Sequence to fold (706 residues):
Amino acid sequence: MIRFRCFFLIFVGVPCFGQGLPKEFINEIQTGKVPSFQELQSNYEPSEGTLLDRSGEHLHRLRLDHTVRRLAWTPTSEVPESFILSILAQEDKRFPLHRGVDYKAILGAIRDRVFGGKKRGASTITMQLAGFLLGSKPGQRSYSEKWNQMILAWKIEERWSKAEIAESYFNLVPFRGEFVGIRAASRGVFGVDPSSLSSEEAVLLVALLPNPNIRSSEWDRRGCWLSEAIGSKNLCEPLKETVANLKKRKVFWNTESSLAYHAARRILVHREINGYKSGAVRSTIDARSQLAAEESMNRILSSIQERNVREAGILAIENRTGAILIYLGNSKLSKENYFVDAIQARRQAGSTLKPFLYALAFEKNLLTPESILTDLPREWELIGGSYRPTNYEDRYFGSVPARMALASSLNIPAVQVLDWTGVPEFVSRLGELGFDKLRNPDFYGLSLALGTADITLWELVNAYRTLSNEGYWSEPTFDPQEASKNTEAWGRERNTRFRKVYPKEITQTIKDILSSRDNRSLSFGWENHLSTKFFSFAKTGTSQDMRDNWCVGSSGNYTVGVWVGNMDGEPMREVSGVTGAAPLWKEVIQSLEEMRPSSNQEVHMARSSNSNIKRSIGLGNAEAPKILYPETGSLFALDPEIPEENERIRFEARTNSKRVEWILNGSVLESDSSNIYDWKPKRGSFILSVRINGAHISDTVAFQVR
Fold:
């Protein structure tokens, strides 16, 4: 027996060195092709795919084939010696000697069948392997199938080594139930990988092969017979104890921690990485960032669940490369809809599309950031009726500059801007930004300015990424190789992988507007979750009846988008973009900047003041007036001890012009004033603007008097 054991181990290289196969591969074999061992390995498909992060860390294991359970290919070096010897003793005693067909075994089987002896099989390991490759079912093979099996077995023996045949058999042989191959069987029955099997466990696995549904008493009896056959009688008692213990405990399928279920489905099922077929695949996702974002999501959702908020989605993309760093399709706190991917679900956009509308208007020279827009209730007469939009909470601010109307998300000015640009042209521009499922412009009308279109978080985040990338658009990617190509193209031939949508100066203007606390103070105040300690710009949005809540924005390096709501469309209670999605957005983008700090800082202006815009508002070479006092957000109180006719608030502007024009709530106070003006106050909310030479407004502030 010792000589027999050594002979076999030398032949299969231990320890010195159908199923789970594509239909096309099996079809080629059935037509006569004999694959190489390497071709078999490359075509082997586990029933589960494994998603890795950018550094190779485990993210998620996802089952792809629910008919069988196959795991990663197991090399012979990880297979216990007791398993190999048991297979040999039970399935093919003369495996090291024959060339694919054991004639002696065949003659013995024929003799037993003719003379009524004990029925036994005569298929060798190589013949069984040939059956797996031909896709034939065990126990249901006709004589012609047996003959084809023998022919393929001869050919395999001519081309493959015994070690390659044995290793292939170990990975393709079916065990109990759905388990195929030694790794699935050892994990499914004993909860360990093949390399961790004890000798008695290895023997018991082999004992399952003739009868997978074997009873416990027969299982340990057969196991004892096998242990004697391989010269290990001392295994019999431990083997019986193992079977007894196995009946007392449940072996659960060992699933590793899941950090990216929804990303795994997109990559492993939809094959969104070029060349991926099966097994493990590395992605662009950053495991640390993904985990931190998930913790923030669960904590913040828990804090607002009482407002009927159950679900959320987070997507983060690296600006230059398009690499997807965070992909959280939903919260594990969601009991009913966790498996629904909120990043790909279509929801109403709310106010999140307004930056793209204003950018289009700036590009067409229809207005500038300082152009005054009227924020008062009004109607638009349309064919078949009229359209009367309202502001959030029915608050109106009169005359406001475009930059404040955009950043403070005022609805009436946005509808006016869309009326100027035209709905068809805006729909076309949104299509260039990747919103490719929009309906006919007539379907939306002017309501498109307020976000009545159904969009995905995927589309929205990538569109904001375009603003960060100087107006260049490209597809986001999970593929590290594609991300590297984007980096190379950005520095050399940008147009080969990026599409120009907006001029650089227009995107810079939008970023400046959305990054300013002054500009958004009308609606959101000075302190809110849109302000960060590094440069960033952001926009929120809430759909009708508070069904969807968005916050999306960008730093110099990353663009992050958050959706908060309920997948079944049930409204939230008293949740706006600033209170719902924005806190989560801020935590995620700050975490990204802290864990993966910027290598290049964004250069930006406090206000849109580039030469093109300066010329467009009619200043020529004059210095644009800047209001020094009051500041935006100032609050004044009338003093009851001072006579009303004596109270004044001083307006002061800095300019090299001797004469300026002060405008309050759209009305000119004085057309030929100095840079200082003393105004008699009254209670209310006010927008103060200044200009020179009859040009466009150059600066605006907002304040209140009580």
User: Anything to note?
Assistant: The two ends are 102 Å apart (CA to CA).
